[in-house]
Structures are given as C-alpha cells and as structure tokens.
Specification:
The structure holds two protein chains of two kinds. By secondary structure, chain A is an alpha+beta fold. Chain A folds into four domains: 130 residues, no CATH class; 127 residues, TATA-Binding Protein; 121 residues, no CATH class; 144 residues, no CATH class. Chain A is 32% helix and 30% strand. Chain A contains twelve helices and 24 strands. Chain B is α+β, with helices and mostly antiparallel strands. Chain B has ten helices and four strands, in the order H-H-E-E-E-E-H-H-H-H-H-H-H-H. The chains are: A alpha+beta, B alpha+beta. At the A-B interface, helix 3, helix 4, strand 1, strand 8 and strand 11 of A face strand 1, strand 2, strand 4, helix 8 and helix 9 of B. Strand 1 of chain A pairs antiparallel with strand 4 of chain B, so a sheet runs across the interface. The complex binds protoporphyrin IX containing FE. Protoporphyrin IX containing FE sits at the interface of chains A and B.
C-alpha cells in the first residue's frame, strides 16, 4: 500500500467517522445541558463589536464552566465570615476582635469582613451565580418543552454503533416485530414513535424536569430570602407577669427594622403575660434543670380586639396575625416599694433582674429618679444595685447566690447610692446598669456601707430616711416578636428543590430503538439498540428484557447463531471502537 | 437564665455504654488487623494475576452480555439467563424468567455501558486470605453489635436520642457507616475492599471521641430539646457516615485511575503498589460508586440543612443567621453541588471531580468537628 492510498483511506475513514458522530450525537443528546465551551465556535465572536462582546459575555456567564467557577467562589467567599466575628451576629465579639488585631481593622473594614454576607463581593458572586442560573434555566426550559412536543429522535442508520446492541434473525415478518416492540416499549412506559422500518422510544423525562424544578426552586428560594430581608424585622421585649405589651415600636427594648418593615408596618396586636410556668428537676444529677417553660399569654388583634389565650414556649412560638412570638429568656422581677422620709411612695414596681447563671442568680438595678430628698434637704436621685437569688444562700467566699432556679427562698441583696443617675446626659443608658460616677454610696456610718437583705414582705430603713421594701415577687419573660414574610415560600421552594433534585439525580433518561427489516429471503433481521446516561448500568439489562419479551412474537431462528451484528459490523473497524462511543456520549454533556 | 430542659441521667447505663464502646473499639482493632492481613496475604498470587491483567488491555473491556433462551420442553416457563462476561476473568450471572420459545440472543455492550474490568478483590483469590477476610467481616459484625449496644444504652441513660453532643454524634455516625457497609455486604454486594479504610476511619473517629470529645452522659442543652433533634441531627449523622464512604471511594478512584493510566502506557512496574491497585475494583466502578453515594447523600444533606433552618426558626426566631455551623453546612453543600456539576461537565469529569468530592468531605469534617471545637457560635453542640 502506498502512502497516498493510506492517506486517502484515512481521510475517508475520518469523514465517515465524523458523519457517524454527528448522527450518533443527534440521537444521543439526552440532556439539554449547555454544550461544553470547547465545542462552541469561537470565530463567530471575534471582531463584531459591542454586541458581539455582550453576546460572548452572556454565553460565558451562562456556561456550565462559569457556573462551576462561581459555585466554587461562593463556597470560598463564605469561609471568612465563619472565622472572623460578624457584626450581625455579635457586635461585642467584633469589638473584642478589633481590639486584638488593630493593624487589620481598617483594611478588613473596607473589605466588609465584619459583615461578609452583605458585603459587595459576596453579593456580587451570588448575584452573578443567579443571573447565570436564570440564563441557564430559560433556554433549557424551552428546549425541554421542545423535547416534550417532538417525537423521540429517529433511529440512527447504524444501530450497531450504539453502546448497547442486540440483533437476531427471525421468521416473523417485520410488521409483527415492530407492533410487538411497540407494545413492549409502551408497557414499559416509554414514549414511542414509529418511523419507516424502526421504532424510536424514550423514557425518563422526569430527570430533566426534576433538574429544571430544582434550579427554578433555587431562584424562588433566593427571592423568598430577599423578601424576608427587605420586608422582615423583629423586636424584643421583656414583659413582667401581669404586664401588657402592644406591638408598637416604643414598647420594644430593641427593634431591628428593614427597608420595608419600619415602625409604621407593625401590625396592631398586643398581649398580656398572664403567668409564667417553669418546672425543674428537683433531684438527681440534673437537679435544677428545666423541664419546661411556658408563658401563658392572652392576646388580641387590632387595638382592642377579643382576647384569646395561648402559650409561647421554647421551640414553640405563638403565632399571632402572621408574626411569631418567641419565648427567648425568663427571670425574676422583685416588686420594690421605696418611700421617702415623709412616707410618700416614690417608687413602686416590679423590677426585672438579669440572670447570670443556671440557677438564676441575677443582677438587679433599681433607679429612683424623683421624689427623694437627702439629709441636706436637696433633691437627689437614688440607685440600688445588687443580687437577686430565687433560692438564696450566702456563700462565705462567693457572696450571695442562688442554688436553685425556682423561687424557693427568694432574697435580694443590695447596696444603695445617691446623687445623679446621669440619665439627663442624653447618652442612652441601659436600665440594667447603674452609672455611679456622679453618685455616693449610702453609708451607715463613716466606714460601713449601707446594705440590705430583703425577702418578700420585708423592708429596710434607708440611712437618710425613708424605706425600701420588697413587697412581692413576679417573673418576667423575654419575647422576640418576629415578622418573617418569606418563610412560607422559602419552605415550599426548598421542599420542591429536594423533590426536583431526587428526580434529577435518580431518574435515568434513556432511549431504545428497534428496527426490523424483512429481506428478500423472507427472513427478518431484528435489531435493538439502547443509549443511556453513563451513570446507568441498567440499560444492557433493560435491552435484554425487551429482547426477551420480543422472543414471543419474533423468536430467534434456531439456526441463526445470533452473533451476526448486522451487515456492516464485521467490515467496519469503528463499530467496536469504544473511543467513538465515548466521544459521542460525552458530547451531550 | 437559659431555658433548658432535661431529664435525669441513669449513670449505671452510662457506665455500661462506655464499657461497650471500649469493647467495640478493641474488636474493631482486631477486624482492622484481619483486613490488613487479607490484603497482605492476598498479594501472594500476584505474579499469576499480573500476567493475566497485563494481557487484558483496556480496549478489550468490551464485554458481552449473552441472553440465552433455554427452550423448555413443555408448558413450564423457561428460564433465560443473561450472563455478563468480564474480560480479565470472573463472571457474574443475572437470571431472569421469561416466556420465550427458543433462540439465543447476544447483547453487546461497549464503552460506558460495558461492565468494567474489576480487580480480584483484597484476597486476590487466595484461599487463606479469603478466610481472613471473612473473619474480618465477622469481627466487624461483632464490633458493630457491641457499638450498637453502647449507643443504645447511652441514649437510654439520658432518655433521649443518643446524639446530643459531639462524642455521641461520633459514636453514632461511625456506627451508621459500619452498618451501611455490613448491609451492603450481607445483601450480596462485593464491597469487602472497603473494610480496611472503613476500619481506619472508625477507629480514628472512636479514638478521638473517647479521648478528646468525651462528655459525661447529661441532659440536653436548652435549644436541643426538640423533636428536630431526631430529624436534623440524625440526618447530619447519616450523611456523615455515607459521605465518608463516598470520600474513600473517590480517593481510591484517584489511585486506581493513575494506575490504569500508567498501565495503559505500559509504565507499571509490578511492585507492591501495583499489586494492591490491581486488586482494587476498576476505576470506572469506583468512580460510579463514589458518585452514587454522593448523589444519594446530596438530597439528604439538603434536607438536613432545611430541617436545621426550620428548627432554628422555631428555636431562635431566625431560620438562617450565618452562624459558623450553618455557614460550613452551606459551604459543604455548595462544594458537593460543585462536584455534581463537575461530573456533568465534560472537562471536569474524572480526577478533578474526585478531588472536589474529597474537598467537599473535608468541609463536612470541618463543619462537624472544626467548627464545634474551635469556633463558638449559637450552636451549643460540642459539649466540650
Ligand atoms: C445556584 C447554584 C447552583 C446549584 C446549587 C446547582 C446545583 C446543581 C446540582 C446539585 C445538580 C445535579 C443534579 C443533576 O446532576 O442532574 C445540578 C445539575 C445541573 N446544573 Fe446546576 N446548580 C446551580 C447553578 C447552575 C447554573 C448557574 C447552571 C447553568 C449555567 C446550572 C446548570 C446545571 C445543569 C445543566 C445541570 C445538569 C447536568 C446534567 O446534565 O446532568 N446550574 N446543579
């Protein structure tokens, strides 16, 4: 053989292979996934100006490769926020961190490292990803609709080249074979279509449907998050037993609004804390641990609607008018009465104390702003601070503390100050902290400070006249009232996403072709071929099952040895070439 | 104070649980040694197998499934056998029943649809090694039963699900991994080769659990008192056990794939490593298995995250607040999504995708351990 002839042969073979590949890949496209970049013509793009560049950018952005890169970037971008404290989660931790790493603060601040998940770069990544996603979903949806409306693709000319193949000779005539094949495939719920001497069939459209459902649900979920972010908000408030709260911004201890959820959007409702029930383990190693907490509420809608009763407990918020009322903490509020030297009551109320440990040893602050007159005849303010313990015990080292979280032996241990509480300075002040810079401690004499240990019903004289009495004890509960408008749709879309995902991952899309041709000798050659996504190892079995069912109407001739793979199987070198099959299969992805 | 809920703890049962966990570790150690011995002795028949394997070029992996209709004499439905012949030795037979008359039909499968050439397994066909392997499986079963007892008594001692802290989580998660492995084995799947790396992981996990993570059996911290603990945490646990298997297979796939590439180019030297690689399942099988495991886990992991968000919503009033645990669950999820995309993208299939699977599993570990131990968030889970 000369070189020339060899070259010509090779060329012919190439051309044949190329034609074959086209044919097979048309039959084999089981997914409407974008074709890999390398397959797209680049030349088209060069030198066609702005529009061309836009087209190019769009095509890049919506390609699988860019989706992959963006996904990877998204995961990387989420990392720093888990290592560096975030303002949204804990401003105090951010401050502590900034104290420690002064050199980094300004750079990190510029990069938005203290609010990573709302920083420009994090947003840029996920917005690009979702643009890419939408750019991917829309054409894929149209393609899928097209696929559903079209018939399964016609049988390729050379079925023998498909990855799974069977053939036999039968004395049944072609029509009988095709009718039987049609029935067998329909029975297996394949979509079928007959064209000429062959039947095409396809199954597993739910894969593509699931894939689209999953990706669309992701977009829906993002929209739901955005709605929550833009139109959600929450506030927290401490309510003492018997106390009333109405959903108004002035009543909150703390209110976190958002762009579309402001003081004006608060729904009109209110509630009274009728009572608070707590029960605890009274014995064993878990003594003192809570068994349950229930806040009994009566709530009403509107400004003065009918009262309904309900409970809010841990993990079980109370739903009122679409908002959720969460019980987030509880504690005690001793009822304190203070009188001045004239016997006038200048302070009377339940004062919530903040718990410090599991046994509810709490810090208490009582501020008496008006009505007290000191020894010198001048008006002055009073401040008391100290510890409240529901089950009080005085530890020689640690001082007063609580040994059990329930009010078995409540005690209040306080000292007092007089002077200026500093509440007129204009600087917001916590009700739970006493600023003693402009105050003097109350003293019994030159050296001993005034101290009081009160139990319910007990009172003490103040050094400058007047009394302080603990008249009773109440409990308080801390509530978070949250308005999360997107929650429902986020939940529905995540459920749909999971359902879609299951379809997308576990349904196999596959095709089976059956061809039957009766020759001049009256013998019918039956050919079956199958094609599936590479993850399916079942296609050979499935084809075998169909072949066996067909034996009823088109039994294989006994004399035919069944190893004849069609006319051109033996003379075609590429027929057995796994390379060819591999390329045509991978092209679809 | 925090709102907490608890029940009293039975310290007797907690003690029994500890003893059972330690015993299971001892038995796992023996199982580990037995698997190692299987791999070692299985190498004895190396020379014979190598010459067989070298003569089976990858191009010949085109296999033939023969559907043979055996015509039965009369009315009885004849059986039809579909046998899948494997190049390089070994035959699997699938049998079906069908009412067929006669004839013999060949089903030819090639390329991705053809059954790949499998390795001979850890024992390499050596009888003694095979016996060691079977002993190893029995020991694994015994150890798993002991561990199951340990986990159950732990749960009973506190009257709640036995995964309330990181120690319990690790015990339960490794148990799930072993039970899945045994389940596959007893359902007739040939996965004994997973035994050795699995034992390594289980022993490491339990070792870390009893030394670093140990926490006395106690009541639950406040927010954990919810039925979501059953749903969310057990989801995370099952995912962990399965993802570990997915990661092992992905790692083995990378090894075997390098080896097969080298063999195709005739670069294999035939040393101990070649021998081990030779006995592993084929790269294609490992790749598929790894994909299947990860693909099955992905929806479950998605569900776990969603369940966590629902729980967070009812416990804290926010379904998502970028707490470090949530963040790493999200990162893990996104990297697994990357992996699935990579598998579907022509240029990223194979080794690159496998590396992504390994990265994704590291993210899972960071999420379960790194975050709980080193970073403090709202999740008060570690019990450390
Ligand atoms: C928001 C981030 C995204 C996530 C979390 C995600 C997740 C997934 C997952 C888990 C799969 C596997 C299901 C399967 O194999 O059928 C998948 C498949 C797929 N995704 Fe995405 N995806 C995202 C964005 C995108 C984008 C932006 C595109 C388009 C450029 C895209 C295109 C595809 C395609 C075409 C498939 C199917 C591949 C196949 O034919 O099997 N995805 N995606």
């Amino acid at each position: 053989m000369t070189d020339d002839r060899e070259a010509a042969d090779a060329q012919a073979a190439d051309a044949r292979a190329a034609e074959e590949r086209d044919e097979l890949s048309a039959a084999g496209r089981l997914s409407s996934a974008p074709v890999a970049e390398q397959d797209q013509p680049e030349a088209e793009v060069v030198g066609i100006g702005v529009l061309g560049w836009l087209r190019w950018t769009w095509r890049q952005l919506t390609s699988m490769r860019v989706a992959l890169i963006l996904l990877f970037l998204l995961s990387l971008a989420a990392v720093p926020g888990s290592l560096i404290p975030q303002t949204a989660a804990s401003p105090s931790k951010v401050e502590a961190w900034q104290e420690k790493h002064k050199a980094w603060v300004s750079l990190f601040d510029k990069l938005g490292m203290f609010h990573v998940y709302s920083s420009f770069w994090f947003s840029a990544i996920y917005i690009l990803l979702f643009v890419s996603l939408v750019g991917c979903i829309i054409p894929r949806t149209w393609q899928f609709v097209g696929v559903l409306r079209a018939r399964p693709p016609a049988a390729p000319r050379h079925l023998v080249r498909l990855p799974v193949y069977a053939t036999w000779r039968s004395s049944a005539d072609a029509d009988t074979v095709l009718t039987a094949a049609h029935g067998a495939l329909r029975k297996r719920r394949f979509r079928t279509s007959a064209a000429g001497d062959a039947i095409s069939s396809e199954k597993g459209y739910l894969r593509e449907f699931g894939n689209l459902l999953f990706h669309i649900s992701l977009v829906a979920m993002l929209i739901a998050f955005a709605v929550t972010k833009l139109a959600g908000g929450q506030g927290t408030v401490i309510v003492v037993e018997g106390g009333t709260f109405s959903n108004n911004v002035t009543q909150y201890d703390d209110f976190e609004p958002s762009s579309l959820y402001t003081a004006d959007s608060l729904k009109a409702f209110g509630f009274t804390l009728d009572g608070f029930d707590a029960s605890f383990q009274t014995s064993g190693s878990a003594r003192g641990e809570a068994v349950n907490f229930d806040a009994r509420l009566s709530y009403w809608l509107g400004s003065d609607g009918k009262k309904t009763s309900g409970t809010a407990s841990v993990n079980h918020p109370l739903q009122v008018d679409g908002d959720n009322i969460y019980l987030t903490a509880h504690g005690f509020a001793p009822v304190i009465k203070v009188t001045n030297a004239k016997g006038e009551v200048i302070y009377d109320g339940a004062t919530p104390c903040l718990p410090q440990d599991a046994n509810v040893t709490s810090l208490c602050t009582i501020k008496v702003t008006d009505g007290y007159v000191g020894k010198d005849g001048k008006k002055t303010q009073l401040g008391f601070s100290g510890i409240f313990a529901p089950t009080a015990e005085v530890d020689p080292v640690l001082g007063p503390r609580s040994t059990f979280p329930a009010a078995n032996n409540p005690g209040l241990f306080i000292t007092g100050y007089q002077g200026d509480l500093g509440m007129d300075t204009g600087i917001a002040q916590s009700v739970y902290q006493l600023d003693t810079t402009a105050m003097k401690q109350l003293k019994l004499d030159k050296t001993n400070p005034w101290k009081a240990q009160l139990h319910p019903g007990q009172g003490m004289k103040l050094p400058d006249g007047g009394t302080i009495t603990m008249t009773g004890l109440k409990q308080w509960a801390n509530f978070t009232v949250a308005h999360n408008p997107g929650t429902g749709s986020a939940l529905v879309s995540s459920a749909l996403a999971i359902i879609g995902l299951i379809g997308s991952l576990f349904v196999q899309r596959r095709r089976i072709w059956v061809r039957a041709v009766t020759g001049a000798d009256g013998v019918t050659v039956v050919e079956l071929a199958g094609l599936a996504r590479s993850e399916s190892s079942r296609i050979a079995d499935e084809l075998a099952e169909v072949a066996l069912v067909l034996q009823d109407s088109a039994p294989a001739d006994r004399d035919g040895d069944g190893t004849d793979h069609g006319e051109d199987a033996d003379d075609d070198p590429s027929a057995e070439d796994p390379e060819l099959t591999a390329t045509s299969l991978s092209k679809e992805r | 104070m925090n709102l907490a809920a608890a029940e009293s703890v039975n310290s007797n049962l907690a003690h029994i649980s500890n003893v059972l966990i330690y015993s299971s570790m001892a038995v796992y150690l023996f199982a580990f040694l037995a698997y190692t011995a299987e791999w070692t002795f299985g190498g004895r028949s190396r020379v014979a197998r190598q010459s067989a394997a070298l003569s089976a070029r990858p191009g010949e992996s085109v296999a033939t499934a023969v559907a043979e209709a055996e015509a039965a004499a009369s009315t009885a439905a004849p059986t039809v056998s579909v046998s899948v012949a494997k190049a390089g030795g070994g035959t699997t037979t699938l049998t079906r029943t069908v009412a067929a008359k006669a004839g013999k039909v060949d089903i030819v499968a090639k390329g991705d649809s053809a059954p790949p050439v499998e390795g001979a397994g850890a024992s390499g066909g050596d009888e003694q090694a095979d016996r060691l392997g079977r002993i190893a499986v029995s020991l694994t079963t015994l150890a798993a039963l002991l561990q199951l007892g340990g986990v159950v008594t732990r749960g009973m001692s506190a009257g709640r699900p036995p995964w309330g802290n990181l120690y319990e989580f690790t015990c339960a998660m490794t148990l799930v991994a072993v039970m899945v492995f045994l389940g596959l084995l007893y359902s007739g799947r040939d996965v004994r080769w997973l035994g050795l790396p699995l034992m390594l992981g289980v022993l490491t996990g339990l070792g870390v659990a009893v030394t670093v993570l140990y926490a006395a059996s106690e009541q639950l911290v406040p927010a954990l008192h919810s039925y979501w603990l059953w749903i969310h945490v057990s989801g995370a646990m099952i995912c962990g056990g399965a993802l570990y298997a997915g990661a092992i297979t992905a790692g083995m796939y990378v090894c075997k794939d390098f080896y097969e590439a080298a063999r195709a180019e005739g670069r294999t030297k035939g040393g101990r490593w070649s021998d081990i690689c030779e006995r592993m399942p084929s790269a294609a099988t490992l790749d598929k298995l790894s994909y299947r495991i990860n693909a099955i886990v992905f929806p479950l992991w998605t569900f776990t995250i969603v369940a966590g968000a629902i729980w967070a919503e009812s416990a804290w009033g926010h379904y998502w607040q970028w707490d470090p645990t949530e963040t790493w669950a999200f990162i893990t999820w996104v990297v697994y999504a990357c992996y699935l995309h990579a598998r579907a993208t022509a240029g990223w299939k194979g080794r690159k995708a496998a590396v992504l699977a390994l990265v994704a599993f590291s993210c899972y570990l960071i999420n379960a351990y790194g975050v709980s131990i080193f970073i403090n968030g709202v999740h008060s889970y570690a019990g450390l």
